[in-house]
Amino acid sequence: MTKKITDLLGSINIVESIGDLEREINAIHFDSRKVETGDFFIAQVGTQSDGHDYITKAIEQGAKAILCERLPELTHPDVSYFRVENTSKALSVLAHNYYNRPSDHLKLVGVTGTNGKTTIASLLYELFRKLGYKVGLLSTVTNYIDSKVVKATHTTPDAIQISALLNEMVAAGCEYCFMEVSSHAVDQHRTADLNFKGGIFTNLTHDHLDYHKTFDSYLRAKKGFFDQLGKTAFAITNADDKNGKIMLQNTKAHKFTYSTRAFADFRAQILEKHFNGMLLEMDGIELWTNFIGDFNAHNLLAVYSAARLLDQSKEEVLMKMSELKSVAGRFESLVSPNGVMAIVDYAHTPDALKNVLQTIDQLRTKNETVITVVGAGGDRDKTKRPLMGNVAAEYSDKVILTSDNPRSEDPDTIISEMKEGVSADKLRKVLAISDRKEAIRTAIMLAQKDDIILVAGKGHEDYQEIKGVKYHFDDKEIINEIFNQ
Ligand SMILES: CC(=O)N[C@H]1[C@@H](OP(=O)(O)OP(=O)(O)OC[C@H]2O[C@@H](n3ccc(=O)[nH]c3=O)[C@H](O)[C@@H]2O)O[C@H](CO)[C@@H](O)[C@@H]1O[C@H](C)C(=O)N[C@@H](C)C(=O)N[C@H](CCC(=O)O)C(=O)O
Ligand SMILES: Nc1ncnc2c1ncn2[C@@H]1O[C@H](COP(=O)(O)OP(=O)(O)OP(=O)(O)O)[C@@H](O)[C@H]1O
Ligand SMILES: N[C@H](CCC[C@H](N)C(=O)O)C(=O)O
Ligand SMILES: [Mg+2]
């Protein structure tokens, strides 16, 4: 798709430029390895390396235009250079313009917060399809262009991919798109130029401190998403989360709250809890849902609030909501031929793990043994490891600490860091088996009829990443295999 550079720059403030500004370019890239003849290369300062070091490489591969924060000492006569203050921010404008500003032609709603993003975005996608619309979804599990599946690699794709996918949605006739907005994405300006119709905040608890360093800067990254919303947008926050109000402090958007406890614009209450669902009172009307766990009452309420603010009728929304099913890898239960229940859940933060274990605790009769199999991801926040170890031991009868995605780290080191959070009196409950399949097998061997095994952390993931290689690994598949041996 050939484009004139001047048509792409839009609102970007160019501090300095060199060369032919009227030039046409073929494609835009921030990765020099993808550059081909006639392309535009954007040099970004990253966490591992600096894109400015690859400008020469990009030109050797045929780049005809360069966007950078520092001009190279020697410039090439056949190349145009643009210097800006922040190339990542500028990239989101360039990408959006390159793909004809797709978010202007969709009702785009972003969901942010530590936990619940995938659940809420996916349920909104399902709900709006049931309401008869063509819809797009950008989520950790899968991206959808209406019914077409596009594999997801990130919770929030990079700026170029986002605009490319939104553009495909517009071309396919989608009216709505629901997307997860991760704190990494906000911090790296992946969503900076998008035109959001609305934003939803779920909650803020411990995660990603490897990247954000402090809880306060993690909070500021999330808040940055709401600061960026326009005055015609809506911003919905969870009034039951202690940071819910702070999120909306500086937004220009119309503010709304949801709560299961206090006064709020949208309210719900849990009337009954069962192993196959919950009876809720949602905005004054009784609603049976196929979801379990107090946190899911919040997720469903956020879904309901957004649907109402997107002008959908109360009765129709509630009717379709009662048909919604849980998202892949979120509290999915399997039962063995001899009556052992295994629950697969994506809980990979201390708060999520605690919520899931408390949910199990509320539903059990107390005669069962609860066995938790859990690990923590490598090359991610190390400070959540002891907290997760502690939660697992506190709320389970037995714990098998194991590997999640060790990535470049030693699995036994991760396990010992999780174990450090277990108090001395609970250590006897804890086993360490780093091979995840063996850990699951051991839990199943230890379990008797009616016992409950929670296999946490990987949910829908169908791989295990070890030293840069992704091996096929699917918790549900393995549980089924061992259940049926
Ligand atoms: C820490 C992080 O977020 N890293 C993301 C970031 O990469 P980076 O800034 O570290 O890149 P870098 O390797 O330092 O390179 C700097 C620049 O040089 C360029 N480069 C590099 C090498 C080369 O040969 N040529 C070249 O041009 C790179 O393309 C880049 O523009 O930008 C890349 C492009 O957008 C992302 O793919 C990459 O995600 C990595 C793979 C990642 O694992 N990210 C995770 C932590 C993440 O983003 N997770 C959140 C979910 C979190 C949640 O649970 O909520 C997500 O949104 O998925
Ligand atoms: N509203 C919520 N509050 C707390 N915990 C939740 C909530 N919703 C889901 N969880 C727990 O968190 C896990 C992850 O849920 P989900 O995938 O929806 O979150 P996410 O925000 O998309 O996570 P990620 O950051 O990995 O994209 C679930 O498996 C469940 O254990
Ligand atoms: N989006 C999260 C997912 C974590 C899932 C867990 N299985 C892990 O690999 O740590 C992250 O990248 O931190
Ligand atoms: Mg997600």
UniProtKB/TrEMBL annotation:
* Residues holding ATP: 113-119
* Protein EC: 6.3.2.13
The pathway to which it is assigned is:
Cell wall biogenesis; peptidoglycan biosynthesis
Q: Which residue positions does N6-carboxylysine occur at?
A: 222
How is it modified post-translationally? Answer: Carboxylation is probably crucial for Mg(2+) binding and, consequently, for the gamma-phosphate positioning of ATP.
Q: Which Pfam families match?
A: Mur_ligase, Mur_ligase_C, Mur_ligase_M
InterPro entries per the record?
A: Mur-like_cat_sf, Mur_ligase_C, Mur_ligase_C_dom_sf, Mur_ligase_cen, Mur_ligase_N, MurE/MurF_N, UDP-N-AcMur-Glu-dNH2Pim_ligase
Q: What does the protein in this record do?
A: Catalyzes the addition of meso-diaminopimelic acid to the nucleotide precursor UDP-N-acetylmuramoyl-L-alanyl-D-glutamate (UMAG) in the biosynthesis of bacterial cell-wall peptidoglycan.
Please identify the protein, giving its name as recorded.
UDP-N-acetylmuramoyl-L-alanyl-D-glutamate--2,6-diaminopimelate ligase
Organism of origin is Ancylomarina salipaludis
Lineage summary: Bacteria, Pseudomonadati, Bacteroidota, Bacteroidia, Marinilabiliales
